[in-house]
Amino acid sequence: MFCNQCEQTAKGTGCTVVGVCGKKPDIAALQDLLLYALKGLSIFAQEGRNQGLVDDEVNLFTYQALFTTVTNVNFDATRLQELILQCLALREKLKVQVASKGGQVDFSCPSTTFQGATELAKLVEQGEEVGLLTDKEANADIQSLQATMIYGIKGLAAYADHAYILGKSDDKVAAYIHEALASIGNKSLTLQDWIGLTLKCGEINLLAMQLLDEANTGTYGHPVPTSVPLGHKKGKAILVSGHDLKDLEELLKQTDGKGIYIYTHGEMLPTHGYPDLKKYEHFYGHYGTAWQNQKKEFKEFPGAILMTTNCIQEPQDLYKENIFTSGLVAWPGVAHVDKEDFTPLIEKALTMPGFAEDEEKGQVLTGFARDAILNVADAVVNEVKEGNIKHFFLVGGCDGAKPGRSYYTDFVEKAPQDTVILTLACGKFRFFDSQLGDIGGIPRLLDVGQCNDAYSAIQVAVALSNAFDCEVNDLPLSLVLSWYEQKAVAILLTLLHLGIKNIRIGPSLPAFITPNVLNVLVENFNIKPISTVEEDLDAILN
Ligand code: FS2
Ligand code: SF4
């Protein structure tokens, strides 16, 4: 196997024996084969569009198949086998439709004709043969751009899938994905073309994030500042992790009146701010921190656990019977439930002890998405004009297990008192309960939401630039980002597409970026790796 798509990749170069995430070689091979099959499907989807044919089933499948291969989502060989076979069946169906429109159906790329083996072991061998979906004959820089684009597309597909679940989609997203995947192996494309196609991922990702923002706020209302208890109530309990708001809503509906309290874990914390979710009285509080602490935190939770998206880790025996996956998440031997019927999960919670007593552990504030911040924009602008707020930092992104990630905690703690910290995604759990005080009633630590809410942070930056009549790059705003998986790659490409410069990124640079590609990023966008907190604060503020 070879996989280098996430920040924790082995030795900073690639996982070759087994994934640091727990991905085994057979799963890596099946994920590679799924992407290869998807490339074949993309060629027909692109030709179909040329003939005026758009297939919604193909679009949705494309999002789901890509999201499945994101880090810490699907570790189940049987589920991947089903998806590969479904992909080939869709390809054949589309081929017939394209032919009926007079389109081309005879392509030289073997991904358009390959047949999947019926036995799982043989399918794994086929996956090992195709390997990573990059053009192995292209030079290292082109392969690096292709990898960056594919990883960005995985993140983009995750956002598109979330938006789709809540009824929002735009064919431009699928059209770009199909074009990009179909282009791998096209020898006529130059390095410059690949830079363009890669940055286009950022442009399309902005659209997908906008769709998701509209889907979330249109369905559940704009988040409002909300205090979330970190303790618990006496009684039965279910813990919900991941990012899927629809799963959470369905669970809240299906547990209403059943005497079960619902708690969030990890990236689900910001859901407490949505009016149409917080209205449920049994939606109580937040338990635990970020994904990489789940083994310790889940085994101590006295109720059932639902994992709605990434990041799942290998469930330990102590809680394997209590954890359920939904949507695209899968772990072999772990029960899977669908939002249409959470009965097995609810019944499990009812058989478990729950919390024996009420316990207070303080509160954290969330719900500072774009609408909430823009509602106090005048006050924020005044504080800046009066010199009380000197600088804004966006300290956000993914968390992970590496010790170098303490940089972000230290950064927030050492940021001067006259600065405001916007944060989002699971990286915030290193400092989410820090008491940073306020400036003129404006909290110094503002939780914008999940990684899925990066669009909200971008809108806040754009609104500030309008208020100060300057470009975003000229604002007293610095982005200090942590990355882990492929949604972060998509967001970074969006920031680059928007021309945002001087981003600091860590804890390490992506293994799939070659020195030449990094040079392009440094020369055009002045991207920097994080250094020490003191050096970076000094460089930013002085
Ligand atoms: Fe965190 Fe994991 Fe949010 Fe990423 S829970 S690293 O996949 O999506 O951020
Ligand atoms: Fe390694 Fe990350 Fe790939 Fe898992 S997703 S195999 S940790 S590079």
Automatic annotation (TrEMBL):
InterPro entries: HCP/CODH, Hydroxylam_reduct, Prismane-like_a/b-sand, Prismane-like_sf, Prismane_a-bundle. CDD domains: HCP. Binds 1 [4Fe-4S] cluster. Binds 1 hybrid [4Fe-2O-2S] cluster. GO terms for biological process: response to hydrogen peroxide. The modification Cysteine persulfide is found at C398. GO terms for molecular function: 4 iron, 4 sulfur cluster binding; hydroxylamine reductase activity; metal ion binding; peroxidase activity. It comes from the Bacteria. Hybrid [4Fe-2O-2S] cluster binds at H243, E267, C311, C398, C426, C451, E485, K487. It is found in: Cytoplasm. Keywords: 4Fe-4S, Cytoplasm, Iron, Iron-sulfur, Metal-binding, Oxidoreductase. Its cofactor is [4Fe-4S] cluster; hybrid [4Fe-2O-2S] cluster. Catalyzes the reduction of hydroxylamine to form NH(3) and H(2)O. Belongs to the HCP family. This is Hydroxylamine reductase. It comes from Heliorestis acidaminivorans. The gene is hcp.
